[in-house]
DoxX family protein (Jiella mangrovi), 107 residues
Amino acid sequence: MEHGTQKLLSFPAGEHAGVALMSLFGAAGAIELVGGLLIALGLFTRLAAFVCSGEMAVAYWMAHAPQNPFPVNNGGDAAILYCFVFLLLVFTGAGASSIDAARKGRS
């Protein structure tokens, strides 16, 4: 979620702060902000995690992999980690204390 707020709301200030919403970075920021919030709340977790996992895969292959084939050298470790953590959430769901569980009466 923090990467999304940096891209869209310029908080905290950084290299990618304040990008246009109708750009590739803007679309990534929207997915990160909305998807991160939904996953943190446990609302529509599987769908949000699926979209976020795909976004992390695209981020790795477009931004990191062309620099160097090894993640430790191209800075793509976190993108790969998040991709697979989000993919795990697609299959496991949010858990017992999520809004999704409360909506289904499992809390």
